[in-house]
Specification:
This protein has 485 residues and is mainly alpha-helical. The protein contains 20 helices and no strands. Helix 6 packs antiparallel against helix 17, helix 9 packs parallel to helix 18 and helix 15 runs antiparallel to helix 16. 55% of the residues are buried.
């Protein structure tokens, strides 16, 4: 005789077996897209020597990908709703893989910047479908676990890119040098593309909504006009066109808000939905995710230049120098759910405060050694709370709004990294040019990073002060789950 509880366990085990390969494929695609945000960092000094790139060009190689990724994420989510999530995922994967091949074969810095932008477009088409298929394909505790793994991949993929980038550049297979950090995506992308039609669910029948071309046409140039002057301004002597571009960007962001409001009033589905913004905690979590990842991306960018600058590390050693940071980050990201449920929200401001304190020592400990490695671990440990923010923000979003909510939060995270690289990256390069020492540049950089982390901690405190929302994760696992037998 089979008791009901045993039957339910059997159903859950069978469901896990059937959805496990699908989740692995989706998360690997997401991991590749996030990996390429920062995997290029370790290769920058080698790339600079090979292509004779300027400091501003290096920033554009990093930021060009993130600009396209951030600007098109929500549109990618809409296309998934309209055309089917599997179809758009595979289309984005194809664009991403082909663009990765072009990046690996780039003959000039200008060409590399252009194809990095195309690579970002592919990632923006592919990654929103991951959240949508997780939300629709998993229920109850399985959904909570999948969301946690998804958030960990998003946050952890960035720092793993540092280590993997160092390994790939140092491997220098067939004299490929920095090119291997892009070419590694090609075989992985091909395997995922071949397996996708068998493992991913078929197109949804309940397609809805529509695109917001006017909103996209306003948002994209607003981001570009904001970031490009911040990156190129110092190198070009802050020309008048740069200040005009910044002013135009501010105007376009205001126009974007007006366009979105008018589009929604007419019954359209704007890029940034009011219903998503009204979901519990989304706005406060978005504020936190603007500044926390902003400090993270710029820390990885500037630290890599310092490790291969004054500390004269090889790409392999500089990549391995991030291992303590990776491990500390992973400990928090993987095991935070084992803490008492009441602590899930409380540890977020604590984590960002720890990171802020660690950033203050970036300059004083910039001479390297064991203390510097321990410092990166402290920073990684503090920033390991970022997946908690993502999970809290997404757990109470209805499945039908999953694509828009994840697109919004990922857009905010990527925009934060773009602004971090553009501003703090420029501050670091200015300090280096003025003093001729990356160690000297680390002092002002550390204080600036600490300020960003402190603002993120403040946002996390606001997240805790608002009324208690329904259980984000751990409590969900304690609730009865309806299982269809």
């Amino acid at each position: 005789m089979t008791f009901p509880t045993e039957r339910m366990k059997g159903v859950r085990a069978s469901s896990a077996r059937s959805t496990g390969p699908m989740l692995a494929l989706l998360l690997l695609g997401q991991f590749m897209a996030i990996l390429d945000v920062n995997i290029v960092n370790v290769a920058l000094p080698t790339l600079r020597a090979d292509l004779h790139a300027s400091g501003a060009s290096l920033q554009l190689v990093v930021a060009g990908y993130i600009i396209a990724y951030a600007a098109l994420l929500i549109t990618g989510a809409r296309l998934g709703d309209l055309l089917g999530h599997r179809r758009v995922f595979l289309g984005g994967l194809a664009v991403f893989t082909i663009a990765s091949l072009a990046c690996g074969l780039a003959p000039t810095t200008g060409f590399l910047i252009v194809v990095r932008f195309l690579q970002g477009i592919g990632a923006a088409l592919m990654t929103p479908q991951v959240m949508s298929m997780i939300q629709r394909g998993f229920q109850g505790p399985a959904r909570a676990r999948a969301l946690s793994m998804y958030a960990m991949v998003i946050a952890g993929g960035v720092v793993v890119g540092q280590v993997l980038g160092g390994l790939l550049v140092s491997a220098d297979l067939f004299g490929s040098g920095w090119r291997l950090v892009f070419l590694v995506n090609v075989p992985i992308g091909a395997v995922l593309f071949a397996a996708g039609p068998r493992l991913l669910p078929k197109a949804d029948e309940d397609r809805r909504g529509g695109l917001d071309p006017v909103g996209l046409a306003v948002l994209t140039p607003a981001l570009v006009l904001l970031v490009v002057p911040l990156i190129l301004g110092h190198e070009l002597g802050w020309p008048a066109w740069g200040w005009a571009a910044l002013a135009a960007s501010a105007v376009l962001f205001v126009v974007f808000a007006l366009v979105e409001r008018r589009f929604a009033a007419r019954g359209g589905r704007p890029l940034i939905s009011g219903r998503v913004l009204r979901a519990p905690g989304v706005v406060v979590c978005a504020f936190t995710l603007l500044f926390g990842p902003g400090s993270w991306g710029s820390f990885l960018f500037t630290t890599t230049l310092h490790l291969q600058g004054d500390l004269k590390m090889t790409p392999l050693r500089s990549g391995l120098a991030f291992v303590p940071c990776v491990l500390a980050f992973a400990v928090v990201s993987l095991y935070w759910q084992r803490m008492p449920v009441g602590w899930h929200r409380r540890v977020v401001p604590i984590g960002f405060t720890i990171a802020a304190f660690g950033y203050l020592w970036v300059g004083p400990l910039a001479s390297g050694g064991a203390a510097y490695l321990a410092l990166t671990a402290v920073i990684g440990f503090g920033l390991g709370v970022m997946p908690i923010v993502m999970t809290i923000a997404l757990a109470d979003v209805p499945p039908e709004d999953a694509a828009d909510a994840s697109g919004l939060l990922l857009t905010v995270m990527q925009a934060g990294q773009v602004l971090g690289v553009a501003t703090i990256g420029t501050l670091f390069l200015v300090g280096y040019e003025d003093s001729g020492s990356t160690r000297h540049a680390e002092y002002a950089t550390g204080w600036s990073l600490a300020a960003l982390a402190a603002v993120a901690a403040f946002g996390a405190l606001l997240m805790n002060l608002r009324r208690k929302a329904p259980a984000p994760d751990g409590e969900a696992e304690r609730r009865p789950v309806a299982v269809e037998v």
